[in-house]
Specification:
The protein is mainly beta. The chain contains no helices and 8 strands. Helices cover about 0% and strands about 55% of the residues.
């Protein structure tokens, strides 16, 4: 199970962790956001994974050890940092 935390006032994403298939799904609340950059950071702030996406995002996290991670989501209009806990 994981926990998420949102640092922005307006929530533009929903993040779900499916422990059965070790995937995190990021659902963008606004289809007009366009291309977004997504980076996964460890608890020290080091980028361990990153890519650009259009639409909803599915990230495989089976290679991550249990712990605290941050997902940074950026586009022209969006800058959001979310905390996830993988156990």
């Amino acid at each position: 199970m994981d926990n998420t935390d949102n640092n922005s006032n307006e929530k533009i994403t929903n993040i779900f962790h499916n422990a059965e298939n070790d995937k995190i799904t990021i659902i963008l609340s606004n289809d007009e956001i366009g291309q977004v950059s997504v980076a996964v950071l460890d608890s020290q702030g080091t980028v361990i994974s990153g890519n650009k996406f259009m639409g909803n995002i599915h990230l495989k996290v089976s290679c991550f050890t249990g712990g605290v991670y941050y997902i940074k989501i950026e586009s022209n209009d969006v800058n959001e940092l979310r905390k996830i806990i993988i156990v």
